[in-house]
């Protein structure tokens, strides 16, 4: 049986502070988006990822991977966004299992309407409480943890993370995706 590496007092304090801060922050961010934009944070994140992608379009599988979401959960979320007219999903002729998600003009408008309140909430709850040095340290710690916890790129969803943009053959087969 392996030896348990118990947390010392400082580690326990750090862990509990991290958990509490994360829960409080995300609960308030979620509440702001629900109250002001009528959308959960997960939907907002999908809209942001699509808005930053070439032609506002990503493969559904890539969107799931970069969102750290299961494909079925993402598919459900995209279906709800389709109902709202914010996202269009199209099949890809070159890959019968593949599909594209594209941010519509209405989706971009919804994102643009939600963004100011969301950004102000993030600024007031997170960045206003930190010095520039603390913000840099938070970014460093967060990037270190992301690198430790996953070997796949998660943000942003564009080309710099290796996200495949439609090839010419894919664009010809799925012109609405390109």
Summed up, what is this model?
The chain has 178 residues and is mainly α. It has seven helices and three strands. The longest helix has 29 residues, at 9-37.
Name the descriptors.
disordered C terminus; 178 residues; globular; Arc Repressor Mutant, subunit A; mainly alpha; 3 strands; 3-stranded antiparallel β-sheet; single chain; 10% strand; 7 helices
Query: Which percent band covers the strand fraction?
Result: 5-15%
Largest sheet: 3 strands, antiparallel
Instruction: Output the structural class.
Output: mainly alpha
Radius of gyration: 19 Å
CATH architecture: Orthogonal Bundle
Neighbour order of strands in the largest sheet? 1-3-2
Domain HTH marR-type: 11-147
Biased composition (Acidic residues): 169-178
Region (Disordered): 157-178
Protein name: MarR family transcriptional regulator
């Amino acid at each position: 049986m392996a030896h348990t590496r118990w947390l010392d007092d400082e580690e326990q304090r750090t862990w509990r502070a991290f958990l509490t801060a994360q829960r409080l922050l995300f609960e308030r961010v979620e509440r702001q988006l629900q109250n002001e934009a009528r959308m959960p944070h997960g939907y907002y994140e999908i809209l942001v990822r699509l808005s930053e992608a070439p032609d506002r379009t990503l493969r559904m599988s890539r969107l799931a991977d970069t969102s750290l979401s299961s494909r079925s959960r993402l598919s459900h979320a995209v279906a709800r966004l389709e109902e709202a007219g914010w996202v269009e999903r199209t099949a890809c002729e070159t890959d019968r299992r593949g599909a594209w998600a594209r941010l519509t003009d209405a989706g971009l408008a919804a994102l643009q309407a939600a963004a100011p309140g969301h950004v102000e909430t993030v600024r007031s709850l997170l960045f206003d409480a930190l010095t520039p040095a603390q913000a840099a340290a938070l970014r460093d710690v967060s990037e270190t943890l992301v690198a430790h916890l996953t070997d796949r790129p998660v943000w942003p969803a564009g080309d710099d993370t290796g996200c495949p943009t439609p090839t010419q053959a894919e664009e010809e087969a799925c012109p609405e995706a390109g």
